[in-house]
Amino acid sequence: xxxxxxxxxxxxxxxxxxxxxxxxxxxxxxxxxxxxxxxxxxxxxxxxxxxxxxxxxxxxxxxxxxxxxxxxxxxxxxxxxxxxxxxxxxxxxxxxxxxxxxxxxxxxxxxxxxxxxxxxxxxxxxxxxxxxxxxxxxxxxxxxxxxxxxxxxxxxxxxxxxxxxxxxxxxxxxxxxxxxxxxxxxxxxxxxxxxxxxxxxxxxxxxxxxxxxxxxxxxxxxxxxxxxxxxxxxxxxxxxxxxxxxxxxxxxxxxxxxxxxxxxxxxxxxx
Length: 271
Hints:
By secondary structure, the chain is of the alpha/beta class.
């Protein structure tokens, strides 16, 4: 029986974020990505679940053996771009170059071109980056999981479809939200998963599945690493979003896996 839900990992390092991003935001930082990623892999293996890993090209370049291990364990390798620059801060040509660099790095490690892409920090919408999906299509990608169907102060588009849809000929697979009286609420990953009590996460998952739709979960390695390095200079709101309840994220995912089987995007949609 095919799993009803999808699990995804944004494979980036502890310092990758979109708060006041500049050209030098990520330079000179020591990596701490391997330990929490291996922790996630162990949890996936023990629960017999699979995932899509949206891998940052710069991280893959520095940790090729980690990418090979993810692939060896049966997970999908997809692209998260190369440098984690926000898409809406790039020109079309800059984005094309970043995409090409990421694709080349991942292909050299896994032996095939990735078919999926996720924009760093959900940094696309249908107005500012209307060219984004056509560029992916032109570079051989089959799907994107980049358009957050809820507007926040950082990202998102509240008018975007909540479930899978086509933009041009490219399949867009958004993270999951639920709707209450016309208002959308995110729950399936990142800060939202850390904030919302586990019983509600399971209730929301059952509700989405009752519509015969998969829940698209997502997480970052740093969110299962409560002892990892911390970004300096964040204001109170940013720090709350970035670090709230990190100490309990692993156990939350563990409880989700006790109730639900997951697979990769590529396998779920047979791409």
